[in-house]
Amino acid sequence: MTVLQTGSAIADRTEAEVAQPASLQSGSLMVPAVVAVPPAPTGATPKPKRRLWLWAAGLVLAGAAAGLFHFQPWVPSVTEVGVETVALGPVTRVLAVNGRIAGLRSVEVRPQITGTLAEVLVTEGDIVQVDTALARIDPAAQEAALRQAMASLDAALVAEAEAQAAYARDNALGTIVARAVLESAERGVQSAAQEVARMTALLDQVQIQLRKFTIRAPLSGSVLVLRAEPGQTVDPATVLMTIADLGQLVVETDVDESYATQIRSGQFAALQLSGETVVRAGRVSFVSQKVDEATGGLEVKLTPDAALTAPIGLTVTANITVDDRAAAITVPRAAIVRDVASDGVLVLVEGKAQRRAVKLIDWPAARLIVTDGLAAGDVVITDATGLSDGQDVKVAP
Hints:
It is built from six helices and 20 strands. It is an alpha+beta fold. The two termini are 102 Å apart. The relative contact order is 0.16.
């Protein structure tokens, strides 16, 4: 029984009495108890930054999920393409080249011999007629050779006369002169005549050579460029001047050998001189039959329909019409798909890019003529870059 009472008494104590130590409960003075509170563990305090990070991560994940739902990368993408519908239309193939104004006839004047230029008889811009004296090379040495040749011819003529006189005397003596003597006199006449002929030819040669010391105009025209100066030593490789007939001007140009077989005389050409806006009509008047091996160019001359006045050497832009068709199919150059087997294009068929083999005329232009493989109404993809046969595509808005 005691045990039970004691237990009841302890149970009836207030919470304050239990919290106080036994030493403080005896007597009438009650001293409040001081209870030490242990410090909380450092890791137990929640951190606001961690909560913010969790919210940010959640927002990123939500955005990524929304992006995946919007773009749906697991669904195959369809490339947007530009297209055009094939239709027949007029087509003109034009070859654009640059040329320069030149005279119909132009000659670089060079001396035929080596020597010192004694005088120049014309100035740049002069108009000269054919065979007009243009310059002279010092002829002193050649004139001495001429005098020597004339003296040699004179001596040969004297020797010939003496030989003829001796033969005449021997022949007049008749049977008195031995036949051998007469034959010898006859041979002397023949030999003297041959020497006269040789000296005459030598004189002619010297005279011809002397005429070369005077340089004459090979044609009528204007002196365009003058490079000769008195006292200059010249030879057959020296260009003294350029003479051109400015009565009719042409445009000289070169065409790449790739298009050489498509250029013909009579083709139309639109000519625009440098510094002008007007376009002049002309025609192909000359096509060389030989390609320059060094440059791969074919010389071509274009003649304006109307006479023009322009400085020699002026740059001219020329568009030569090589082909003119009333109805043809063309496609952009970017639409062409090339491989070893053939050329082709991609046509749009039921949402797919379908390769179609074609034959075309390759030409330096933005659009090419298709001669086979396409028909009016076909829908051609205008830019085949990066596309493949059978790829899903859709028309760009």
